From TrEMBL:
Keywords: Membrane, Transmembrane, Transmembrane helix. This is Zinc transporter, ZIP family. It comes from the Bacteria. It comes from Sulfitobacter litoralis. The chain crosses the membrane at residues 12-33, 45-66, 78-101.
Amino acid sequence: MEALTTLSPIALGFYGSLAAGLMTSVGAVPVLFGSTPSRKWRDISLGFAARVMLAASFFSLIIPALDVAEIRYGDGAIPALIVCVAILLGMGAVAIMNEVIPHEHFSSGREGPEAASGVTT
């Protein structure tokens, strides 16, 4: 543990990213060499992933934002209102990008405006 305290923040970030990337690769191995999972298993996996991401956004983004807003604006409804407005603005930005930026879905195909290069498939 002592070796970690002597590393620079850049090295710690590099090793942390490397570890996360390696674990992602290890997690992808069953997908590469396994059979196609059943519909039920895919739904369970997607539900689990959605819950993990919801918890990550709540505990890593929303609660700290509330803490910072309370420090700046005190207790009461103002900090909660600021965080709610910020969440709604983020949702709106994602919705606008979904309409403006061309993208492709597996099931429904291409959506959004045509690519700027004019290449269509």
